[in-house]
Amino acid sequence: MSLETAVQSLLILKRAEEEARKERIASEEIVASMIPCPEQGSKTVTLEDGTKITVTRGYNYSAECQEIQNYLGPLAPVKTKTVVELDVKGYEWFRENRPEEFKWLFGNVTATPKKTSVSVKVK
Description:
Distance between the termini: 22 Å
Oligomer: single chain
Largest sheet: 2 strands, antiparallel
């Protein structure tokens, strides 16, 4: 199989996948419209054959948290999170510049391969 053939196959399958996704979402909307459910929350119904269907509705929120905090002060409904995570650029810097410390770091870091991504742009 040539690269051109493989790319054409990939593009056809991606289009089919996108169409299938649209059809799945439309089917989910039809099923969801048939099961009364609160605006936020979920409801489960069981069909005669034992199949269970759960419909969940809700909202995603985004907010100007700093503005809210500035206005409401300590009453603000805002959470503050501290995230401690590996600085990958710093980790790679140690690999290149400090091999002894990197050996120790390496023993404390687990790296797993990402899903391979292929991007194709058609003219």
